[in-house]
Amino acid sequence: MTAPSRPPQPGTLGLIGGTRLVRLTAASERTGCDIYGKCEFENPGGSVKDRAALWMIEAAERDGRLRPGGTVVEGTAGNTGIGIATVANAKGYRTVIVMPNNQSAEKMQTLRALGADLVLVPPTKYADPEHFVHRSRRIAEEMDNAMWADQFDNQANRQAHIDGTAAEIWDALDGRIDGFTCAAGTGGTIAGTGIGLKQRSGDVIIALTDPFGAALYNYYACGELKAEGSSVAEGIGQGRITGNLEGAPIDTQFRVSDEEAALAVQELNTGQGLCLGLSSGINAVGAERLAERLGKGSVIVTILCDSGFRYLSTLWNPDWLAEKGLPVPTGLRKPH
């Protein structure tokens, strides 16, 4: 489906947003619905996080927190850092990215290729002062003319989706949408897109799709931030109500296992030629569940967050899949 037209903008930054919708064929046929994925891998930095990066940096420019020759500092699982480095390069800023050292090698290589100063830290709980978020904040505080992006609580993140993602979905479908779902990392995508769609129609159902190991499913289901199980998905799963999640219009919630998500991305790869990351699989399963709940003829949209080429050493590596107990697609299996 063609994306809504936008006024031409100069340079790389004009390529952010305006991504297209693709119908998820097998899931649509199983449910009797039209299920669409928004192709966020089309952004120049390769993921949905380009949107938040642009809005956060431009908000900091407007309020004077970031001046010419400055540095953008952020703690991230990878995609936001790549988006920030992409935008910062286009605007002439330096980038310092703090990332847990258990994220994919491809993300680390991409950040280094973009010229970011990459600081790797052990994965740890948010309460630990060495958590990547807290470490990045301290680095920014110790630098001159540096902006800490603060993607989790900086509501310019969700404003990107109110202004951009929601408007694009509504326009592309001429307002014919019954439900939207995606997972939450910072919460910016689901909150912002949800707010933007609800502003246009209060009848659009907004559903959280959570991986195991995150606490939001139980929060929206029964009011308690309680995590169960675990997930290997990168960049999603949250244990607190971030600034971006405050007031998010969540109507219902689903929880998806890594195995279900892996099978979903494998189906999209072999059936439609869409090679995606695990978070996209989680979103696709959630979209199918929402379609089943809303009934035949419903129109559902979710987010295809990034390309599977960012996870060749993990999700598309047969040894890694076997180690994690996840299904290995036939094409990846090694000959005996």
From TrEMBL:
Cofactor(s) needed for function: pyridoxal 5'-phosphate
Gene Ontology process terms (BP): cysteine biosynthetic process from serine
Pathway membership: Amino-acid biosynthesis
Pfam families assigned to the protein according to its UniProt record, in alphabetical order: PALP
GO molecular function: transferase activity, transferring alkyl or aryl (other than methyl) groups
Keyword Amino-acid biosynthesis in annotation: yes
CDD domains reported for this sequence: CBS_like
Cross-referenced SUPFAM superfamilies: Tryptophan synthase beta subunit-like PLP-dependent enzymes
UniProtKB keywords: Amino-acid biosynthesis, Pyridoxal phosphate, Transferase, Transit peptide
InterPro entries (alphabetical): Cys_Synth/Cystath_Beta-Synth (IPR050214), P-phosphate_BS (IPR001216), TrpB-like_PALP (IPR001926), TrpB-like_PALP_sf (IPR036052)
Keyword check for Amino-acid biosynthesis: yes
Domain of life per record: Bacteria
Occurrences of domain Tryptophan synthase beta chain-like PALP (ranges): 15-306
Protein name: Cysteine synthase
Record organism: Pacificimonas flava
